[in-house]
Amino acid sequence: MTSPFEDLLPSTQRALLHRIATAQAEGRAPSLVAAVQRDGRTVWTGSRTCVEGHGPDPGTQYRIGSITKTFTAVLVMRLRDEGLLDLGDPLDKHLPGTGVGSEVTVAQLLAHTAGLAAETPAPWWERTPGTSRPGLGDVLGDQARMHPAGRTHHYSNPGYTLLGRLVEAVRGEPWGEVLRREVLGPLDLGRTSEQPQAPHAGGWAVHPWADVMLPEPSVDLGLMAPAGQLWSTTADLCRFAAFLAEGHDKVLGAESVREMRTPAAPASPGDPFGAYGLGLQIVQSGGRTLVGHTGSLPGFVAGLWVSVEDGVAAVALANATSGLSAPAVAADLIRIVVEAEPRIPEPWRPLPGAEVDRELLALTGPWFWGTSAYALTLVAGGGVELQPLRGNGRGSRFTARADGTWLGLDGYYLGETLRVVRREGGAVSHLDLGSFVFTREPYAPEDAIPGGVDEGGWRGL
């Protein structure tokens, strides 16, 4: 049934317009364009500009800077899903001779934990053409590694150059060609490109103490392209946001994009951008988790965030070097929509009859880990959920395996096995979860409690 709430309320639309108008005015940006998507559908677009009558539209290109890294990460995850590499592989296995060390892995590069430098050696790579850095040695410098691999989250632009070269080495084609064929084409991102295509915004620097502007250079980044080259539009980035929330059968499945959204590295001390997944930033904003990426290059700032739980995404793009935080604007647009028009829950429906297993149903209800009470409940698809009944215990969801066990999907028990242990004759003795014993009663004498149960039983003082 189609939702009757597809369009935003006029009051919500006005609040969104007010937010971007305030951002453009106070941030002194030549122009700002933004969009909001809900449940995979763009429900609002808006723009502000300093030139009357020439506001950008959802098809106007802006440079998106480091949002490019998420596209590069998708290409690497595709290689993994095809079995052409493993995230735990050392980079040298597929791209030898880089000089970063044999212990640096693909996963560490994706999560910025490889210990590489944040930037290239001088000159400033964002304002100089890629021809000034013709080889990896020019990108990495004499000291490619600054920290032990796998120990510290240290954002690295050269790290994504290495990932781009990895894609090229495995595919045997330039990064840009692989990107167009494997991501941009299937996702219908026809206005996302390596070079600007009209109509596009020009990049500007605004003087910090006067209302005057200066054009910023727009250079081809060469080897650094996988870290920040792309131009895109709010329309294309909304489609990309829908992919990051749900996956796409021709690009990456839902499980793989969920893996990208899972924290792989904590934030560094003082880092305002929170944790990092595999090519995705993960932040807490207004009590909700946002995933996406920020971006900036001289003349441009960009922000793309998705609240998967709320089904809302937002994009904000501006053509100013500084003064306006496009990521903060995008986060605020999500907050405005979610608070003004919270998602309408789906109707409760009973499980399909084919999924009601009588033996499994008999396992539901309370279980005790020691004296801590838990509840086992059934979920759709033959899975179960084990959650504490009070306090802050360790809960997880589990999916059914063919051998009658369940695999942990999240939380403390991610990847752990839940199994039913039976007595002779077939009666259920207890649940075994990663060696932890869950029983129907706390410390019942007949239960198989490691260490045994005191013969005197429960007693008072």
Automatic annotation (TrEMBL):
Q: Could you list this entry's UniProt keywords, alphabetically sorted.
A: Hydrolase
**What range(s) does the DUF7586 domain occupy?**
356-440
The record's SUPFAM superfamilies line, in alphabetical order, gives:
beta-lactamase/transpeptidase-like (SSF56601)
Q: Which residues form the Beta-lactamase-related domain?
A: 20-337
Q: Answer whether the UniProt record assigns the keyword Aminoacyl-tRNA synthetase to this protein.
A: no
Keyword Flavoprotein among record annotations: no
Pfam families per the UniProt record, alphabetical:
Beta-lactamase, DUF7586
Q: Which domain of life is it from?
A: Bacteria
Per its record, what are the GO molecular function terms? hydrolase activity
* Record's protein name: Serine hydrolase
Taxonomic lineage of this organism? Bacteria, Bacillati, Actinomycetota, Actinomycetes, Kitasatosporales
